[in-house]
Design a protein that fits this description.
single chain; mainly alpha; Ribonucleotide Reductase, subunit A; globular
Length: 325
C-alpha cells in the first residue's frame, strides 16, 4: 500500500478550505497593472521618466538581487510541472490538490510579470541578457532530489516560500530606504503573497505529521542533511555552465542582508516550533533520532554561519551595465 498516497487522499476534503483561506479569487486579487504606469494615459511617458529617475538611486548589488529574484519567479512553469507530478496530485482527473496547485501557480505568475515589467521600464537593465538567464533556468530544469514524495515537496515549499517572503520584503525595505516607494510597494505586496503560501504549505505538513510523525521527521532530517537549495540554484548567464551564477547572486543577497545564512537557520527554527517537533510523542526509534538531530541543528548551523566569509566585492553580471553607460 502506498501510505503517502493514502495520506494525500485523506486530506483532500480539507483542501478546498485551505484554498478559500490562503488564496484569493482572481477578481479580488491585485494585478501587475495596478502598480505600473497606465499606457492609455496621456502622462504615460512622464510616469516612465519618473520611474527611470527613481531607479538611478539603486546600488549594483541591489539590481543583481532584484533581477535574480525576478528570474526565479519567472521560472514558474518548472515549479508547476514539478508539483503537478507529486503523488496524490498527479492524477489525470481534476482533484482538490491539483486545483490548489493551479490556483497557487496563477497567483505566483503575477510576481515575475510585475518585476519583469518594472525592470524593463527602469532603463537600467540589459533585458536580453536577463531573458537568456530566465530561459536557461527553465530549460535546465529543477531537480532537488525531492522525487514525487509529497512529504519532501511540502516541507520544501514550506521552507522556500518563507525564504522568498523574506527576500522580497527586504528588497522592498532597501527600495524604501532609497526613496523608491513604488518599488517598495511592489515587493511588499509580493512578499505578502509568499507569506500566505508559506502558511498554507506548513499547514499541509502539520496535517501530515498528525498521521505519520516518525516518517515526516525522518524525511525532514534527511533533507536538512542535504541542505535546502533555493529554486535559483541552477542560475546561469549566457556562455556559462549550469549553476555558475548562483553563488555570486547569493553572495550579493548576503552582502545586502536580503537573505542570509542566519535567515536559513531562523526559518528552520520557525518550522520546528510551528510543527512542535520537540513535543511529538509516539515516535519510533528513527523518529526519535531524527527529532534529536533536528532540534540540535539550529545551534550547530549558527556556529557555521558565524564562520562564513562572503566576498566584499560585487561580481560582474551581464544583466546590468556599469553605471555611467
Amino acid at each position: 500500500m502506498d501510505v503517502r498516497l493514502e495520506v494525500m487522499r485523506s486530506l483532500e476534503g480539507e483542501i478546498a478550505g485551505f484554498t478559500e483561506k490562503y488564496l484569493i479569487p482572481v477578481e479580488k486579487i491585485w494585478q501587475p497593472a495596478d502598480f505600473l504606469p497606465d499606457s492609455r494615459e496621456e502622462n504615460f511617458i512622464q510616469k516612465i521618466a519618473e520611474l527611470k529617475e527613481s531607479a538611478r538611486e539603486l546600488d549594483y548589488d541591489f539590481w543583481i538581487v532584484l533581477i535574480g529574484d525576478m528570474i526565479t519567479e519567472e521560472a514558474l512553469p518548472t515549479y508547476e510541472s514539478w508539483l503537478m507530478g507529486v503523488r496524490g496530485i498527479n492524477q489525470v482527473e481534476s482533484n482538490p490538490w491539483s486545483d490548489w496547485i493551479r490556483q497557487w501557480t496563477a497567483e505566483e505568475n503575477r510576481h515575475g510579470d510585475l518585476l519583469n515589467k518594472f525592470l524593463y521600464l527602469s532603463g537600467r537593465v540589459n533585458m536580453r541578457e536577463v531573458e537568456i538567464s530566465t530561459q536557461y533556468l527553465i530549460l535546465d530544469g529543477f531537480d532537488l532530489g525531492l522525487d514525487t514524495d509529497p512529504y519532501r515537496n511540502f516541507i520544501y515549499t514550506s521552507f522556500q516560500e518563507l525564504a522568498t517572503h523574506i527576500s522580497h520584503k527586504r528588497v522592498g525595505e532597501l527600495a524604501r530606504d532609497k526613496g523608491n516607494h513604488p518599488l517598495e510597494r511592489m515587493c511588499r505586496t509580493i512578499a505578502g503573497d509568499e507569506m500566505r503560501h508559506h502558511l498554507a504549505y506548513r499547514e499541509f505538513v502539520k496535517r501530515i505529521i498528525e498521521v505519520e510523525p516518525s516518517e515526516v521527521l525522518r524525511v525532514f532530517a534527511d533533507m536538512m542533511k542535504r541542505k535546502i537549495a533555493m529554486p535559483a540554484n541552477l542560475l546561469r548567464q549566457a556562455g556559462e555552465s549550469v549553476g555558475q551564477s548562483f553563488q555570486a547572486f547569493a553572495d550579493a543577497a548576503q552582502r545586502l542582508g536580503v537573505y542570509t545564512a542566519d535567515d536559513y537557520v531562523n526559518i528552520l527554527r520557525i518550522l520546528l516550533a510551528h510543527w512542535e517537533v520537540d513535543k511529538l510523542t509516539g515516535l519510533n526509534e528513527t523518529g526519535e533520532k531524527s527529532r534529536d538531530y533536528l532540534m540540535a541543528l539550529p545551534d550547530r548551523l549558527d556556529k557555521l554561519s558565524a564562520r562564513m566569509k562572503v566576498p566584499t566585492e560585487s561580481t560582474r553580471f551581464s544583466w546590468v551595465d556599469p553605471w555611467g553607460k
